[in-house]
């Protein structure tokens, strides 16, 4: 097995005195499909933000593609960050622009300002955008205004934008939370297919654990900022899940 894509050693992240993650150790290799599960506030989004460098740790070390993000200049850090694509539940699309502009935003880290500006008038890299849209199953929407699409289609545009970026790893924060079960399964299957085909790594936070069991190769259970278990689905028992989501008993 090659060097890990993500490596966290004793990572703690605090927000104004609140500890969102505490002394987390985690190593994720190329091609893994890792689900982050656990109750609200467990630290799943915080962990994803550490993996893509949106947040830096308060203590400990986060290594992405062999680079310690805290030791890099902003420019070097951006170069590493471009290799990590993130799909958010709120898709962060500019909905009054056509789909192609939103997909092309995946190039922005690499394009010059002039090319980016020019692309607003004359879309560049049409073929690449069209291929990405075909991969997510909405090839015909290339020139449609983004706000004319359904929520599920907009989610696919967000994934196409990440594909154009051609990242080594895809992170997804609750990507199926607003979808009905049929569309949620469809999207999970799509994310698996896209990452499996190209050997990309997938790290995905999920509220609905059924999808984690069905589609991921590894489940990381987070509770109160700590990893409670880290195992393949076949080794995760009902008792472990029950314990993960257990409500705290109020102190009387
Ligand atoms: N920017 C922030 N400022 C202050 N506190 C934060 C910030 N981001 C997260 N937190 C806190 O850190 C803890 C972990 O939050 P996080 O969003 O990572 O959890 P989560 O497991 O993703 O929850 P959910 O499933 O509800 O999205 C929570 O107590 C949250 O309130």
UniProtKB/TrEMBL annotation:
<dbReference type="InterPro" id="IPR003439">
    <property type="entry name" value="ABC_transporter-like_ATP-bd"/>
</dbReference>
<keyword id="KW-0067">ATP-binding</keyword>
<feature type="domain" description="ABC transporter">
    <location>
        <begin position="6"/>
        <end position="249"/>
    </location>
</feature>
<dbReference type="GO" id="GO:0005524">
    <property type="term" value="F:ATP binding"/>
</dbReference>
<dbReference type="InterPro" id="IPR027417">
    <property type="entry name" value="P-loop_NTPase"/>
</dbReference>
<keyword id="KW-0918">Phosphonate transport</keyword>
<keyword id="KW-0547">Nucleotide-binding</keyword>
<protein>
    <submittedName>
        <fullName>ATP-binding cassette domain-containing protein</fullName>
    </submittedName>
</protein>
<dbReference type="GO" id="GO:0016887">
    <property type="term" value="F:ATP hydrolysis activity"/>
</dbReference>
<keyword id="KW-0472">Membrane</keyword>
<dbReference type="InterPro" id="IPR050086">
    <property type="entry name" value="MetN_ABC_transporter-like"/>
</dbReference>
<dbReference type="GO" id="GO:0015716">
    <property type="term" value="P:organic phosphonate transport"/>
</dbReference>
<keyword id="KW-0813">Transport</keyword>
<dbReference type="InterPro" id="IPR003593">
    <property type="entry name" value="AAA+_ATPase"/>
</dbReference>
<keyword id="KW-1003">Cell membrane</keyword>
<dbReference type="Pfam" id="PF00005">
    <property type="entry name" value="ABC_tran"/>
</dbReference>
<keyword id="KW-1278">Translocase</keyword>
<dbReference type="InterPro" id="IPR017871">
    <property type="entry name" value="ABC_transporter-like_CS"/>
</dbReference>
């Amino acid at each position: 097995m090659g060097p890990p894509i993500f490596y966290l050693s004793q990572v703690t992240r605090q927000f104004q005195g609140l500890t969102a993650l505490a002394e987390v150790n985690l190593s994720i290799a190329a091609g893994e499909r890792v689900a982050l599960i656990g109750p609200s506030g467990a630290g799943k989004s915080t962990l994803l933000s550490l993996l893509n460098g949106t947040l830096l740790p308060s203590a400990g070390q986060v290594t992405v593609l062999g680079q310690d993000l805290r030791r890099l200049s902003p420019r070097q850090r951006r170069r590493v960050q471009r290799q990590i694509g993130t799909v958010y539940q709120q898709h962060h699309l500019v909905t009054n622009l056509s789909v192609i502009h939103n997909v092309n935003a995946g190039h922005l880290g690499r394009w010059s300002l002039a090319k980016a500006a020019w692309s607003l008038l004359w879309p560049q890299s049409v073929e690449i955008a069209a291929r990405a849209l075909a991969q997510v199953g909405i090839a015909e929407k290339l020139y449609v205004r983004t706000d004319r699409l359904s929520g599920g289609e907009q989610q696919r545009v967000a994934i196409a934008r990440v594909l154009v970026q051609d990242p080594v790893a895809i992170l997804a924060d609750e990507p199926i939370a607003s979808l009905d079960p049929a569309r949620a399964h469809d999207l999970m299957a799509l994310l698996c297919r896209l990452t499996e085909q190209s050997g990309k790594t997938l790290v995905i936070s999920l509220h609905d654990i059924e999808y984690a069991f069905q589609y991921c190769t590894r489940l990381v259970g987070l509770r109160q900022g700590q990893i409670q278990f880290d195992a393949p689905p076949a080794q995760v028992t009902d008792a472990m899940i029950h314990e993960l989501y257990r409500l705290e008993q109020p102190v009387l």
